[in-house]
Amino acid sequence: MIYALGIGPGDPQFLPLKSWDILKKADVISGFETVLNYAKVHFPTSAKLVSLNYKNQKEKLNEVGIMSREGKVCVFCFMGDLNFSGYDFLNNIKTYCEDPDPVKIPGISSAQIAATRASVPFEESIFTTFHKAGDIEKDKEFLVQALKLGKSAIIIPLPWDFMPTEICKYLVDKKLPPEIPVHIFEHLTLENEKSYKTTIGECSGSYSDMSIIVLQNNL
Ligand SMILES: C[S@@+](CC[C@H](N)C(=O)[O-])C[C@H]1O[C@@H](n2cnc3c(N)ncnc32)[C@H](O)[C@@H]1O
After folding, report:
1. Mind listing the pLDDT tens digit for each residue in 117-154?
2. Which of 82, 145, 148, 169 has a CA-to-CA distance to 137 between 20 and 30 Å?
3. Residues 122 and 60 in one domain
4. Are residues 9 and 76 both part of a single domain?
5. Which domain holds residue 54?
6. Sheet containing 194-199: which strands, arranged edge to edge?
7. Number of independent structural domains in the chain
8. How far does residue 210's CA lie from ligand 1's centre (Å)?
């Protein structure tokens, strides 16, 4: 049995009881090192930890796939909620663990925390991620169109090619009003959380790869 489980935005207290129960019965817990560190406090000491990186991912996923077919309860930890910018990893799990249907357990996303901090309702917003493999031109165009329709936007940048400053510059070049407010949140819910409020016309500087931005559109 394989679970794909969102472990929340960082602070381990943002873990639903349902997810906690699943972690407690896990024989094997796997995920990228940073993500595992966020949730470590909830792991049973008996669980085998399989830490992934971009180099060993395929081989380690293969190993976890074998353990799941041997009857072990295997849990993959996703950052935040697996439904936001998590499907590249989910598809790798399906392919390399040879399991077409892992049990998906949602988590609390950094998008929820960012919307809460910025006071931006979901129903007036769009979500988009640039943190993906492949071409992002269509996603950029989608963002422009959504903002022109008056939507707010919750955006995961692409380290280090399309970060908050580049995103804002792109939008100004596309003739969006430079006074649109932008909130940039780094390391949400963690001890080193930081936030910045500016406008797309004035946004500058560099930000952490653990950042998410909210464009608060009032068009
Ligand atoms: C592959 S995406 C996964 C997002 C995740 N599924 C979620 O729901 O938050 C990883 C990126 O999300 C953003 N992110 C995730 N957690 C964050 C946090 N606590 N604070 C700020 N940004 C975060 C960062 O841009 C990070 O590089």
Report:
1. 999 999 999 999 999 989 999 999 999 999 999 999 99
2. 82
3. no
4. yes
5. 2-105
6. 125-129, 152-156, 211-215, 181-186, 194-199
7. 2
8. 6
